[in-house]
Every structure is written in structure tokens, then in C-alpha cells.
Amino acid sequence: MSKKILLLTLTLTLLLAACTSTTSPTQVPGEPTPLTVMTHDSFSVSQEVISAFESANNIKVNFVKGGDTGATLNRLILESLSGSTPGADVFFGLDNTFLSRALEQELLEPYNAPQLGQIPAEFKLDPENRALPVDYGDVCINYDKAWFEQNALPLPASLAELTDPQYANLLVVENPSTSSPGLAFMLATIAEFGEDGWLDWWQAMKDNGVQITSDWETAYYTNFSGSSGRGAQPMVVSYASSPAAEFIYAETELSESPTASLVEAGMCWRQIEFAGILKGTKNRAAAEKFVDFLLSQPFQEDVPMQMFVFPVLPDALIPEAFQKTVESPEQPASLAPELIASQRDAWINAWINLMLN
Amino acid sequence: MTKRPALLTLALWLIPLAFLAYFFYQPLVAIFRLVFSERFSQGWDLFEWSQISKPLSFTFLQAFLSTILTLVVGLPAAWLFAKFDFPGRKGLRAISLLPFILPTVVVAAAFNTLIGPQGWINQALMALFNLSSPPLKLLNSLPAILLAHVFYNTSIIIRIVGSSWSRLNPRLEHAARMLGATPWQTFTTITLPLLLPSLLSASLLVFLFDFTSFGVVLMLGGPQFSTIEVEIYNQAMNRFNLPVAGLLSVIQLGITLLVTLLQNRVNTPRYGKAALNPERSALSRPHKRWQKAFVIFMVVSLILLFAVPVLSLITRSFVTLEADRGQRGEVAIGLTLRYYRELFQNRSGSIFYVPPIQAIRNSLLYSGVTILIAGLLGTLTAYAMARRARFNKFLEPLFMLPLGASAVTLGLGFLLIFNRPPWANSTFPLLIPIAHSLIALPFVVRTMLPAIRSIPESLREASRSLGANPLQVLLKVDLPILLRSLLVSLVFGFTISLGEFGASSFLSNPHAPTIPVAIYRYISQPGALNYGQALAMSSLLLLVCGLGSLLIEKIRLPGEELF
Q: What are phi and psi of A239, to 5 degrees?
């Protein structure tokens, strides 16, 4: 008896799968053009902003989330290598630490979007415009304001000062091999101390009791004293915009954020996020419209409250709550994408050998 | 039973094997073919064997220790639930299952509120003994990994061994005692050999779960510990060194196969016909003094292990700790429903917002389909395995392999094979319950197998000779005996599917997340409200799981009382 039921169920489920699938690829004139956008877990956009785009252009956007930035990129590379047509038309969320990998694998088609002229040159890292900058944010050390006030400790003014014994056991960082803010922070230290000196700094930090976690969630909610997890360390590697999130998503109305960022020269790493049209797309026209949309005023102004990053368009308006609580470093660290691509594995190995063994 | 038993056995194997071949072996072969091709050969340039030997030896060590510890806690607990009736028995049994479904991020948070440097155990110890620093340093250590594994997996022992134990015929033990055996002799010569099949089955599952542990090692063990699974993730996702990741996956699969084969070689005695308990229940109230002491001791220990972390999590979801201006000291602790209310609001107007009811619906839908697939396929497989056929011992390990397959590797394989219609872009991603069924299948098989083997052929023969047709035999003889084990395995399938995060996040439509995916979305953002909502959502997950499993266990056959 159970076999009959099983056969029935299998047939039904297969039928169900077949039915749902046959409806999507065929396209009737007048029906919206389907456009698939591959992006990472943190991507978000307002309902009204995307709906306005969809109805204005007669496009139906289908978002696919592929994990974090690295996982999403690897998924696209794997799809392109397997020789099948790309599963998506546009990729949003590539950042400058992964830029070279995407370009080397020739995942993206160039697109000279009309708005590119308004975007500052510092964000345009791909001269061929395969990857177009959309937003940026900074990875910085966040600190627990109340803790520093209570312990009457001055704030460290540079990465070098963190090796001072008065800051012993006060900082938690993420492992760069498993965490993207961890990787960004490691890159900031390489930019700051050079390829010869950065490991000495980490050795000094190790001696000074720096705490290490595998992921941002544990560092922030288990170790950091300024978060709701009330951990033991008053400093954590997070984002410059995290204090804004603490302010906006507080339990009760606050007059200021309980945390802030250390933004002195060389202490932060700037992450720039890019979008690009995936090679081999059959929807080039719709894909171009979507990239234009990403660089348009409505989306650019939506970005701060949805993803807690800054828009690349200089005249995009930024909400007051965000402006008030996010400090922007004047001199963020940076390294050439090609250097990152060629040295990333070796640097991570060196870091692991020093810090975890 | 039939004239050609081998043929019938093959027929039973057919559908489960086809399922496994299509949804497990096909994607696996595809990914291995790609990563070991010429294209990725430069991945071997920097390769050293220590990249494999180090995580491998640690993986074995922690899995071995974790399994032993889980047995130490689980066996007395299985005995407790199988033999004794005490107030709150059902509730405690339900609570013991809850850790099984909690996402690791949430368990890490719960453990932190308990045993972390600022956790209340350390706070209490510091206040009590006037210490200046927290005495208990458990987080980021091997003990934290072991504790979490015991926390997660004890319910496997309780459920699988416990369901066998409650089916043992107490008359055998009574007879041994009458003939002068000491309680210890009775246990080692009668009870233990009869329990051995389910004991080995359950231990194998626990071992494999610990062996492929990922989140626990990453989040509670901290970055200095690395299992093979963690290393596969690292090589595949961070380094994009696919051949090394592939080699590690092959090794992990090989060891899974080896352990399974080894376990099968242990000569397990089959249940004698007399071992089956004809009465429905052998529960008794503890009456002797040592029995009372045992029950109290076990109940207190289990509450400490399971209920306290779970309750502290739930409590925290109703408590606000906010102080204005980031001022410390004047923290107002108050009760609040804010986090729960906030779950129903889409404050940022995001298109990915999901109302809690919707997430619960998605999760229940997936776990419902998982139960259906895994229950049917698992039962067929267990029936096939219970039959005597020469090829059984070759086919059996095939069904254990999904437990040893690296989630990352299989996930990439799924992408290669199922990224086109009918699988891709469908509004109902059937792939999620299918992936969950792959994990749940070994549980169903391992739970059902000892029960099926325990059915005395004489009962079936008797009913046949009384004129019952095969269907009637199945419904009137097999089903009543199997029901308890079937329900246990359904509860496993239900919880596995409900709590699973990796495949769900990978395969789900971002507009239709499951509960664990929704929890992760909240906890991956800063802000007290996000943290609170993650805890509130976790409490809802616990509630849904607790209610669901209680409901499944409530299923009774009409007229079962007569049995």
C-alpha cells in the first residue's frame, strides 16, 4: 500500500514541479520581461522603489540570494564553468576584495552606463566598466561608549596604539579566512603597516590579548560589550554604520547611539560594492535598465536605510538618522585589487599561522 | 513469504535507490568531475598534506569524545524515559528534542547568556566568591564543542535507544533475576545485547553528526579549531580552491563509508521472538529508594542541560535591558512584548520582509513534505534491509553516505545539476524538502530497522493462516508494532527539516524564507531590536517544534489500546 501512495506522491510532486516551471520561461507579448538578479544575503530594497522600477519598465525582477559575497561569486563562476547559460542576468554585490576574481573569470560584460560620469573616480576601479560601483561602506572598529567613559580610558587614535598594554584584552576581531569584515580589517592592517610590518603588528596584538572569533555574529553579539549580547570586549571589528543600526533599531528611543566607530587615518577599510551584467545574458536591454536603476536617485537614496551603506552618487540625499550616527573616515585604507587577488591566500595563510597556531 | 524473496527485496530497494541516485549521487558525481578536471589543476600548487592531516585528526578526536559523552548522558536518560513514569515526563521528553533544531547562532547566543564571561553562571560565581574575573572560561574551547554536541545529540540516543528499550520484554529480565543474576549481570547479559542494534545505530548517527560538525565548531569552538567540514567550506568558499575541497570531501565520504561498514560488521544479535514486549507499556512509578534517587538525579541533570539554556533564551526574548545614552549601571530590566510586536512590522519597507506567520507556514510546508518523502522512502528501505538478501550489505551503506557528505560540496553539486527547469525558478522549491529528506532518511531507516526486525514472523504467519491478506497483515500486525518507531522517525524528520539552515538558505526563494533563515537575517544585523527579534523568532521556532512533535507523538491507532 505504501508503494502506491509513494508513486502517487512522486507523480503529483513531479507534475507540480513541471507545472510551475513551464509557466515561467515562456513570454507573452505585453507580459513583463523577467529579469533575474543574483545577489548576496544582505541585499535589500524598499518595496515601493522596486515596484516603481518594475511598472515603469515592464520588467519583473526575480532576486536570487547566493549566500555571502564570496559564496555568491563562486556560485556564478561555477555556473559559468559548467557551460550552462547563466542562471542570472545581473550580479549585484561584488566588492573590491573579490573584484579581481570576478574580472579574471570573465563573468561580466562591459556597460557604459550614462550615470557613470557623475560617480567620483575613486570608486571606479574597473576601467572597462564591467563592474560598476553602486555603494560603499567602511569596516571600522566599533567601541562601547559607556565602557570607555566609565573606565576613563582614552580612545586609541591609531592601529599602532592598540598594542599598548592599556588596551590589553579589549578588542575582538574576526578570522579573515571565514569572515568578510575580518578580511577587510586584515587588509587595512596590511595597507597601514606594509607587507613587511603587518605581521609584527598582529604578533604584538596577539601578545596584547586580542580575541578572535570565526564570524561577525559571534564577535558582535557574544564578545562585544556594546551590543545586546553584553560581552566582555568593548571594541569589535564591525562597520562604520553599525552605530546607526544600534540607534535606529534600539529597543527604546535613544538620544544617541550606545556605540561609535574609530575612524582615524588608516584604521578603516573601505568596501565598495559593484554591480555588473552577466556574460551571455539573453536580457541585455532589461539588464541595462536595471543597472541604470541601481545608479538612479531613488535606489541610491534607498540604500542607506536598507543596507546601511553610502550611495556612490554624490548628490543622493542621506537620511538624517543615518548621517547623524555614521562617521565616515577621511582616510580609509586601500590596496590595489590586483595585489589583493595575487596575495590574498598567502596573507590569510600567514595570518592563520601566526594567530591560530 | 514469497517464492522469490530476492526479487521482492530488489523491488523494495528500487524507489529509494532511484531517489538517492538522482538527488544525491548525480550532483555529487557532477561536482567531483568538475573540480578534479584539468581546469582547476593549479589548485594543487600550494597543497600540503598537513592541510588534511591536522583537521582530520582533530575531527576524529572531537567526534569520538563527543559520542562517548553523549552516550554517558543519553543512556541513563533513555532508560529513564523507557521505564519510569514521573510527573512532567512528556514535557521533559519534548524539551530534550528542542536543542536538535536550534540554529547554531542562536545556541551560541543562549550559551553565552549562560556560560559566557558575562553569563549569569559566571556573574553568580563572581558575586559568591568575590572574584574579580570570570572563573569559568568555557567559550572557545574544546569543552564548549563537546558540551554543544551533547546538548544537540542526546535526544538521538534518548529517542532511538529509548524506543527499543521500551519494547524489550521485561519478562526476560525478570527471569534472569529469578534465576539468581545480579542486576548488573542481568543488564550485561540480557538487556545490553538486546539493545545493541539500536545502541550501535544511534551511536553511529551521533558520531557522524559530530564528525561533520560545522556551525558548532566554527561558532562555539572558535577559530583555532577546524574540522574537515570547516576546512572544506574554507577551501571551497574562501579560497575557491575546489580540488582541495573536493579531496577533503572524498576523504570525509570515505570515512563515513568505512565507519558504517565497520559498524555493520559488528555481529549484532537479532531480537529473539521472546524479546518483544506483548504488553503496550512497561512504565512504572519509581518505588524503591534508589529508583527515586535516580529519577530525581536524572530529571535535575536533564533540566540543567536542556531546559535551562532553552528557557534562558525564551526568557530573554521577553526582557528588555536597554539603558539610555549607552549608560551602564542604570539598566532598566523590564518585561516586554516589543520584540514579538516588531516581528509583525516591516519598518524599513523592505521587499524581503516576511511576516512571522508566513515564515512558520513556509517551514511547516517544507517539513510536511520532508516527513512524507523521508517517511515513505525510509520505511521502504528499512523493510528491504530487514530482509535477508546477499546484496543488502552493499546497498545499506549507500543510504548512510548523505550524512557524511559535506553540505558545501553537495550544495555546489545541486547548483550544477538543478539550476535549470524544472528545478530552477519554480515557485515551490521542492529541492528544499528533498535536501532535508536526504539528511532525514538515515534517521528514519535506523529507527525503523530494529523495530521491523523485531516483528516475529510467527505473528504474520498466524494472521495469514487465519485468512488475512497481505494488506491486512501489514495494517494489523506490522503497523501497530512499528507505529511507535515510525512516529519517532517522523518527529526526527520534522525537526531536522524545521531547524535546517544551510540548504534552506541556499535553495530558498528569498521572498519565502524558513524560520531559521529569518532568524539569521535578524541576527546578522546590529541593533537591540534585531537581536531581540532573532530571539523572539527562535522562541517561535521552539514553540512550533515542541507543539509539532507533541502532536505527532499523539497519533494513536484506533483500537491500539487493545494491543
A: -110, 155
**CA A141 to chain CA centroid, nearest Å:** 16
Phi-psi region of A194 (alpha: psi -120 to 50; beta: other; left: phi over 0): left
Give the number of other CB atoms < 10 A from CB of residue A55. Answer: 10
Assess whether pLDDT exceeds 70 at residue B180. Answer: yes
Beta strands in B146-190 (DSSP E): none
Measured CA distances, B495 to A329, B203, B503, B516, B542 (Å): 47, 19, 15, 12, 10
| Contact (CB, 8 A) for B226 and B217 | yes
Assess whether pLDDT exceeds 60 at residue B382: yes
SS3 assignment, position A260: strand
Q: Output the DSSP codes for A134-182.
A: EEEEEEEEEEEHHHHHHTTPPPP-STGGGGSGGGTT-EEEE-TTT-HHH
pLDDT digits 0-9 by tens, A43-62 = 999 999 999 999 999 999 99
**DSSP calls for B48-86:** -THHHHHHHHHHHHHHHHHHHHHHHHHHHHHHHHHHB--
ipTM of the complex: 0.82
Q: Check CB contact under 8 Å for A9 and B373.
A: yes
Q: What are phi and psi of A294, to 5 degrees?
A: -60, -30
Return d(Cα B310, Cα B306) in angstroms, integer.
6
Min CA distance, A227 vs chain B (Å)? 7
- B219 touches B105 (CB < 8 A): yes
**Nearest Cα residue to A85 out of B34, B414, B413, B420:** B420
Distance from CA of A281 to the nearest CA of B (A): 15
CA-angle at B235, arms to B232 and B241, nearest 5° = 125
The Cα–Cα gap between A266 and A197 comes to: 14
Residue type, B490: L
The pLDDT value recorded for residue B559 is 46
Mean pLDDT over each residue of chain A, to the nearest integer: 88
pLDDT in tens, A211-239: 999 889 889 988 898 888 778 899 999 99
**Helix B515-523 with B528-553: angle, nearest 10 deg:** 160
B145 and B62 Cβ atoms separated by less than 8 Å: yes
Check: CB of residue A213 under 8 Å from CB of residue A176: no
Strand positions, DSSP E, B446-520: none
Longest Cα separation, chain A: 75
A37, A62 Cβ separation under 8 angstroms: yes
The answer to whether A49 and A20 are in contact (CB under 8 A) is: no
Q: Which amino acid is at B446?
A: R
Using CA atoms, how far apart are residues B304 and B324, in angstroms rounded to an integer? 34
Peptide bond preceding B422: is omega within 30 degrees of 0, i.e. cis? yes
Q: Find residue A272's DSSP bridge partners.
A: A136
Look at residues B367, B359, B365 and name the one whose alpha carbon lies nearest to residue B497: B367
- Residues 6+ positions from A95 with CB-CB distance below 8 Å: A69, A180, A271, A272, A273, A274
Question: Domain residue spans in chain B?
Answer: 51-341
Task: Look at domain B51-341 and name its CATH class.
Answer: mainly alpha
Q: Which of these, B508, B530, B507, B509, lies nearest to B520 by C-alpha position?
A: B530
Partners of A239 on chain B (C-beta within 8 Å) are: 526
Question: B431 to chain A: which residues are within 8 Å by CB?
Answer: none
Instruction: Match 560601483 to its residue by C-alpha cell.
Output: A133
Please answer whether residues A159 and A278 qualify as being in contact, where contact means their C-beta atoms are separated by less than 8 angstroms.
no
Residues in chain A: 357
From chain B, the residues in CB contact with A42 under 8 A are 524
Asked if the Cβ–Cβ distance from A356 to B223 is below 8 Å, we say yes
State how far residue A194 is from chain B, nearest Cα, in angstroms. 22
> Considering only CA atoms, which of A161, A180, A192, A248 is closest in space to residue A219?
A180
d(CA B154, CA B145): 14
Task: Say which range, A158-162, B373-377, B410-414, B465-469, has the weakest mean pLDDT.
Answer: B410-414
